[in-house]
Amino acid sequence: FYDDDHVEVFARANDGETRQPRACRTVEFDTLYFPTCNSFHEIDVGRPYDDPNDDEELSKPRPVNQLARSHILSNGYYRDVWVVEDNPWVYPAQYRKEKENRPKKKLGVLNEKSTADLVVKGYRSMVLKTLRYQHKMSDESFDEIRKEAIIMERLTKSPRIIDLYGHCGFSVSAEVVPIELEERIVLGEGYADPKDVEERNKDGLRPYNNFTAEEKLDIALQMAESIADLHGFEDGVIVHDDVQLCQWMTTVDGKHKLGDFNRATIMEWDEINGQYCKFNNGKGYGNYRAPEEFAAENLDEQIDTFSFCNNIYALIVGLWNFYDTDDDSVVQEKVIDGNTAYVDPRWKDRSYEEHKLVELLPKCWATDPDERISIFDAVDYLRKAVKEKPSNTPR
User: Fold this and answer.
1) Residue 22 main-chain phi, psi, to 5 deg
2) What is the pTM of this model?
3) What's the pLDDT at 295?
């Protein structure tokens, strides 16, 4: 074996220590590229005439572009998120019913008005993600976005993955999935003083979110199934590499879809040993990652499983897993040392569904990834829990 554009040879095995060569080949779909640039060039996302000497002001998109019916929705660290609407006259029948389709009750999100607008206009809109102007257009950024696009394209058949509409350069367009799931699971900042939590729960556990126990089990299963679509993809294992609540959006009919794959890793195949090659994704940041990610070596799809159960904890309690501190470095030290979030034992007695969810936590919070259950085991466990739910269990 020799190094070329598609095969990289390593002297050590997956454990990083044993001197056993690996020949890690890029899987075929990893290098695919299907740009649809003409459709992107038709979109006007005009910028204001800002002071070119003011970097902060220059990076702010125009709030609304009336001509093109495009407006800024939100942004992450790397990308702006726009909503681009078709003119109403394209859909005369549906447009007449928009006022009737407006949600009759609150959706439980931070911005009720803009979310309700998305619910009403989603059928004639799409999401456009563009690289923020303060970031350079590098080869690395281009490949991350290309990889996100090809992952979404390959997983089009999954009803649990956000649908891709197109891709060009540093931008992607996708379906509108209007409701932020994170904002409904973790209300507010998601942090609390342990004394306040104790006082709140002294006469019985009171979660900080408004989901029923049955809804919690259903959401957990849908999240697990969407991750399993990645890990079990027929052409090669895909690691999301950034599993957190904000990656799921909720449709009008209550389906939860996974998106945002710009950190995803498509695992390479070891042609010598007949297994997937573990990888290095760089230094771990934040407070939501698996312990092995802070060493940044010998990683596989099990990092997603660990972070998935952080989601489950938040779903049960309504707070972040280490809700007593917002200091990432403190949480990282706890996770590296093998510590997990405190789970009040009374959750097991509150309902059948929450009992099952609490039982799942240690299974995927194991410090050793080889001792951690797979996401397929988690799916099987949750499906069994749904199927075996006693008929007299309160919701």
Assistant:
1) -125, 140
2) 0.91
3) 83
